[in-house]
Amino acid sequence: MPKGPRGQKRPTDTVANAIRVAKILTGEVEEDMGDSSKDKAAQSLGRRGGAARREKLSPERRAEIARKAAAKRWGR
Fold this sequence. Notes:
Layout: H1 14-26, H2 40-56, H3 59-74
């Protein structure tokens, strides 16, 4: 059986996958999201880090960063 990007098992053919999706939607089978295999402590630190950086930056600096990101994204 093929594996997804995080190692979850997936049906080999399209019909089997469609049947699995239908069973998940009707509640016959629970969807197995699996474990992200990441350290929970590291995940919580990462979440706090983004918020701390946001609080530390001035609104002008955040706008500057956003403009630079948009320019890169849209290839100005």
